[in-house]
Amino acid sequence: MHALLSADPAPPISNAGNGQLLVAALVGIGVVVVLITVAKLHPFLALLLGSAALALVAWVPGEDAITSFTTGFGSTSGSVGLLIALGAMLGQILADSGGADRVVATITDRFSGSALPWGMALIAAIIGLPMFFEIGVVILVPIVILVARRTGQPLMRVGIPALAGLSILHGLVPPHPGPETAIASLHADQGRTLIFGLIVAIPTLVIAGPLLGRFVTRWVPLHAPAAGDGVSGPVPEAAPERKLPPFAQAVIVVLLPVVLMLPAAIVNLWASEDNVARKILDVLGTPSVALLIAVVVAYFVLGLGTGMTRKQTSDSLGGGLPGIAGIMLIVAAGGGFKQLLVDAGVGNVIADWAKDANISVLLLGWLVAVGIRLATGSATVATVTAAGIVGGLAETLTPAHLALLVLAIGCGSLFFSHVNDAGFWLVKEYFGLTVGQTIKSWSVMETVISVVGFGFVMLLSVIVT
Q1: 3-class SS at 359?
Q2: Most CB atoms within 10 A, among 177, 306, 388, 399?
Q3: Are 176 and 190 within 8 A, CB to CB?
C-alpha cells in the first residue's frame, strides 16, 4: 500500500550555516513551547508564530517562508484532515446510536472479577479505534466509574486499562491523526506501519493496562464516587424509542477500517505493483476510503438500522465535526512548521549530525518527540515536529525501519503527560483526582506506554529488515 504523500521537500530556501539553522530550529520550537505553556496561547497560533520566528532566525525570505508553510499546511490538511473528519463522524454516530453502549455492556457482562480489567482494556481498544482520545475519555470514563461502582473494584484497577487502551491506539495505530501525520511527513508505508503498530500495541497494552493497574491501585487506592455526586458525567444511553444495535454489528462497523486496510498491507508484501488484486485492495485499504466506507455502513447499520430517521442520522454524523476543528488546525499548522524546518535545511543538518554521532535514528526520533512532548504537552505537536526534524534521515532507512520510525516518534509523543497537557486535566477532573494522584496514575501510565512501546519497537528493528 502506498504511503500518504506530503509535499516534496523544496530545495533549501536558506543560505544560513548549519549552526544558525540549528539555532533557528531551537528558537522556533522554543517560541512554540513558551507560547503554549507560559502565555497559554492556542497551539495553532503558537505554531504560526513559531514558524515566523524560525524563518526570521534562519534568514528565510518572507515569500519563500510563506510558500513553504502553506504548502505543508495544505498537504497535511489534505492527507490527515480528511481522516480526522471521517473518524469524528464515525465516533459520533457510534455514541449516538448506542453502539458504544452495546459494546461496553456486552463485554462487561462477560468479564468479571480479576478478568474485568482485561475486559476494560478490550473495550477501550475497540472503542478507541475510530475515536479521538478526548472523545473516548468522555464516553468511557463515566462507564468506568459505573462499572467500578457496581462491581466494587478499585477505580484505578478498571480505569488504567481503559485509559491505556485509548492512549495506545491514539498514539500508535493508523488511522489516528498522530501516526497518519508522521506517515505523511516521512512518506512511510501505510501497511507496514499498521501491522507493526498492532504488534507493538498489543503487548504494550497488556503491560501498561491490566498489569500496571495492579500497582497503580496501591498508589492511588480510590473507589468509585457515590452516585449523584457530579464527579463524572452521565453514562450515555441510547434514546428509549430506539433499539440498541447488536454487538456484532457495532464491532464490525468499528473494526471495518482496519479490516479493509490489513489485506492490502499483507498483499503488498508479496504481490507486484501491476497485480490486479493489489490495485483493488490498495484503493479499498487507503485510510480515507476505508473510513468513508465505514461511515457509509454506519449510516445504514447504526443509524437507520436502530430506528433513527435520515435527518437524525445525518445530524449525528455532522455533530462530530465542530469539536475537531481545533485538532485539524493544529495538525495542519504542525505540517506547515515541519515543512519550513525541512525546506530551510534543518532536517539535513540533523541527519548529518546523527550520522556523525552514530546514534540510532529510532532513538533520535523517540528522544526528540519526548523532549517536545515534555515541553509543550501536546502529542500532536511532538509528532509533527519530531517527524520534520528527523525526516532528513528517512532516505537511509528501509521501508520496514521507516515504519518503525513512525512508531518510535509516536511512543515518544506519549511520554509523561503532566500539567501542560489538556489530557492530564481531563483525566484528573473526570476521575476526581488530586494533581499528585493524577501524576501517580495517568502520568506514570503514559510514561510506561512510551518506554515499553519503544522497547518493542527496538526489538522489532532487530528482527525485521
Answers
A1: coil
A2: 388
A3: no
